[in-house]
Amino acid sequence: MPQMNPMNWLILFLYFSSILIGCVVKLHFSKLSAQESLTEVKDVAGVKNFSVTV
Prior knowledge:
The longest helix has 40 residues, at 6-45. It contains one helix and no strands. It has a domain at 1-30. Helix content is 74%, strand content 0%. The chain crosses the membrane at residues 6-25.
């Protein structure tokens, strides 16, 4: 098992950061089309005064 040097940690950090940013961007752009389903989910859950702020 090779020793982890700072460059490997940096690559690992950038890799996971890109995955996280990709998920956030995908959720942000799908939020516009998912607002109706989100409203339905809130109605089903009975949480009518719950507001989602991004």
